[in-house]
Design brief:
Elements: E1 2-4, E2 7-9, E3 15-17, E4 19-22, E5 27-31, E6 39-41, E7 46-49, E8 51-56, E9 58-59, E10 62-63, H1 69-81, E11 84-90, H2 96-106, E12 119-126, H3 148-157, E13 162-167, H4 174-181, E14 186-189, H5 196-204, E15 209-210, H6 226-234, E16 237-241, H7 249-259, E17 264-267, E18 279-283, E19 286-291, E20 294-296, H8 309-318, H9 323-330, H10 332-337, E21 355-358, E22 364-369, E23 372-373
Parallel strand pairs: 1-6, 2-7, 8-11, 11-12, 12-13, 13-14, 14-15, 15-16, 16-17
Antiparallel strand pairs: 1-4, 2-3, 4-5, 7-21, 9-10, 18-19, 19-20, 21-22, 22-23
Helix pairs in contact: 5-6, 8-9
Length: 376
């Protein structure tokens, strides 16, 4: 198939008038005036890589931690319909037996291209190595100090597919775990009370990522820059939830200026209420109430988002982020940050043919997953 006449998003985060061709799972050619019979006309449209969501708990009424193949399938089907072609199933703070069961259930899906489903690329292990003071929507009863042996057992069980480990660097034993884990996967600072020096120590021991910037951490102040200041100095990538609820649009604009679009990753942090009507749901074993698209615990604490990544991109653009920067932060950067860029994240010959076509209003016109046009 050939997608012709579209404005194609390049690995340099620019739009150029080029065609793209694929005949199997891989991209065969990216060039001008590619000829062939099976053609999709993308005139006046944007041709971009499939979105990559590295931090998502659930959608369409299902949660990754429900520990069910059917729930993984439900999430993956919803995501691909929204242009998200790769994702990391994100856990919550649970004990080792529960996390082991979740990983065991998910393992057959890792990196498998299934028609009609976004590809589960691995796990974002969000918890349980957190500060209780910054637990957010995490269940306090499961939060523990970092435990290398526990993490290593789970990593081995996953077949090496835990791609992000989230950890609070100020906790006892955290720096040792960060140093060891960073040799196996990417390590992200999260749900933390760390000051600037403690966060810097985390980066110096191997962390390279920040989980949902500004959320679950102390605020940045002019004499106490904290985790955000340390991230500005040391982090390779930072995530930000761009639903307009977790972070004010002004701060989203400021973050892109502070970190530059080479380091920003848009995430959804979506939970099971994503794609669903207002009502009562659950997250990590706790009741969640969604009202007008805002999900909260009974205490009023924000409990993840209900906004899919493609909508986060649209909102970022509406907040004043350039389209190029927003697309880069939802494709190239997250793929790099989770060690997936050799397979997905850009439209380059030899990479998987995960392609999304957007109209001028950023509505989805076509989704291709591993070279197959998806039907919804």
């Amino acid at each position: 198939m050939i997608i012709k006449n579209g404005k194609l998003f390049t690995e340099n985060a620019e739009f150029v008038l080029q065609d793209i061709a694929f005949s199997s799972e891989k991209i065969d050619a990216v060039d001008k005036n590619i000829c062939g019979e099976d053609v999709f006309d993308a005139t006046d449209c944007y041709v971009i890589p499939g979105f990559v969501d590295i931090h998502i708990h659930g959608a369409a009424g299902s949660d990754f931690c429900d520990n069910s193949e059917n729930d993984i399938k439900t999430i993956a089907e919803y995501l691909v319909s929204q242009g998200v072609t790769s994702f990391l199933g994100t856990t919550m703070a649970f004990d080792e037996p529960i996390l082991s069961d979740i990983i065991t259930t998910a393992k057959p899906f890792f990196n498998k291209n299934i028609d009609g489903q976004a590809t589960l690329r691995g796990v974002n292990m969000e918890g349980p190595f957190f500060s209780k003071a910054k637990k957010g929507a995490q269940a306090e009863k499961y939060i523990i100090d970092p435990d290398w042996d526990m993490f290593h057992r789970l990593f081995e069980l996953s077949g090496g597919n835990i791609r992000l480990l989230d950890i609070a660097p100020e906790l006892p034993g955290a720096l040792e775990v960060i140093e060891k884990a960073s040799k196996l996967c990417h390590v992200s600072i999260a749900h933390t009370t760390a000051n600037y020096d403690q966060a810097i120590a985390g980066f110096e021991h191997g962390a390279d990522h920040i989980t949902h910037l500004f959320n679950g951490m102390p605020p940045m102040a002019h004499r106490d820059p904290g985790v955000v200041g340390a991230a500005q100095d040391k982090a390779s990538y930072v995530e930000i939830i761009c639903d307009g609820i977790h972070i004010h649009p002004s701060i989203i604009r400021a973050a892109f200026r502070l970190f530059g679009d080479d380091r920003m990753c848009l995430i959804s942090d979506a939970m099971r209420a994503c794609g669903m009507p207002d009502g009562e749901y659950s997250l990590g074993g706790q009741k969640v109430f969604m009202n007008n698209g805002k999900a909260t615990l009974e205490s009023g604490t924000i409990a993840g988002s209900a906004t899919v990544l493609s909508e986060c991109v649209r909102r970022a653009v509406s907040f004043g982020i350039s389209l190029e920067s927003a697309i880069k932060a939802a494709t190239i950067n997250p793929a790099k940050s989770a060690g997936l860029y050799d397979v997905v994240g850009s439209l380059q010959v030899g990479k998987q043919a995960d392609i999304v076509v957007l109209d001028k209003d950023l509505n989805i016109k076509l989704v291709v997953l591993a070279g197959k046009v998806q039907q919804f």
